[in-house]
Amino acid sequence: MTSIKQKAVSLAIIVVLSIMIIVATITIRYVFHAHDRPREGRSQKLTRVFITNAKERKAVCNDGSPATIYVKRNVSSGRWLFFLSGGGACFDKTSCASRYTDHYGLDPTKGWLSSNSSSPVKYANGLFNSNCTINPGFCEANYVIVPYCSSDAWAGDFDLEFPNVQKGEFTFHGAAILKASFEDALYEHGMEDAAEIYVAGESAGAVGALVAGDFLHTLVPNNQTVWGVISDSGWLNSGRGYRASTCINWISCPLEEYAMRAISYLNITPNVPCTDFYGEEFKWKCFFGVFVFPYLESRLLILISLHDPWVAMQDTLILNGLLGWTWPLTTKSEVDWIFKRGVSVVESVKDVENVFATGCITHSLVHSEVTVDGITGLQAIGDFVNGEVVRHIDVCTRKDVKKCGTKCPKIPLKGNVF
């Protein structure tokens, strides 16, 4: 009887943990990534195109389906935006299997592993907003969006002849997708004639843009083309986490451990000059902004939250609640941890020329109305593409945490934790 009770308790724990992960995932997608939904009068409509000879070029998703891009041309503009989508990553068979469980069967997130259910059109806002007051940098540009379906921060190179995503048996070809999609944009969609090209990304896509931006620049045939990289919520700051974690899923695993596992499992070589400096044992560092920055040559703009909820979840704070960042901070040590992270972020970008950093607890600033020094992230990007130096860093102390920045999301608090 005791054995039956123990099995029942174990099963109940597994069910509860699974529900926690799924609910947190839905919250992330619909709260932090609400921009994926069309907004009438602002969104732009892009058309899906499959990568040419995708399988021969290994430009395939986790399940082996061919990768895609979404394109919209504006022949009167010489400015191009090449955008890498985000969506986390996995680092071993168990965490990859959890991505299938969490995402594959839930519209619209199933596109993170496959192109089989991709839509013929995509409505995009944020950097694709057609209102030039809101989005002065790219309201009238040419657009390429590369959907994220490789679970490897655009850097994996691991092949399986017969992938089975239900079992966590993925093929990882983010690096090949990145190269093939950029080449197709150049030579099949007219980007080779661009006067300006900006590679941008958010979250995992921002990591890809940051780490691979210099490599993509080498593919541009015209060395007179203006070039820039925009990284939104992809400047990772190293750290061991708020508490120890067994890293059993891709949602809650401290970032250093995350990177070390992913480098090995996904067969990743990040930025080459950085990797050459740190060597095989420590090349995982080259996913972190503070370590890779000295080896980057591209003109760069970093957008970041000092208190990013995604980083908080990787730091294992998610274990205190079911709904991602919607649960209240309940202890002084939790708040201490969040602000310690913020201080370290400011320190990590001290040598970066162009930075937009908010004190708000938010993720993905190109879709936000949050302001620093009276301007939004999109307006800061407009200044950046016009050649100006962008340096806007929020100051947010424990005393004014409830009113950090402007138009910040409300911070859930419980009791006097300050």
Structure report:
The structure is a single chain. With 418 residues, the chain is α/β, with parallel strands linked by helices. The protein contains ten helices and twelve strands. A hairpin with a 2-residue loop joins strand 10 (371-372) and strand 11 (375-376). The strands form two sheets. The chain has a ten-stranded mixed sheet, with helices on both faces.
Strands, helices and their partners?
Elements: H1 2-32, E1 44-50, E2 68-72, E3 79-84, H2 93-104, E4 121-124, E5 142-146, H3 174-188, E6 196-202, H4 204-218, E7 226-232, H5 255-265, H6 272-282, H7 289-292, E8 300-305, H8 309-314, H9 332-348, E9 354-358, E10 371-372, E11 375-376, H10 377-385, E12 391-393
Parallel strand pairs: 3-5, 3-6, 6-7, 7-8, 8-9, 9-12
Antiparallel strand pairs: 1-2, 1-4, 2-5, 10-11
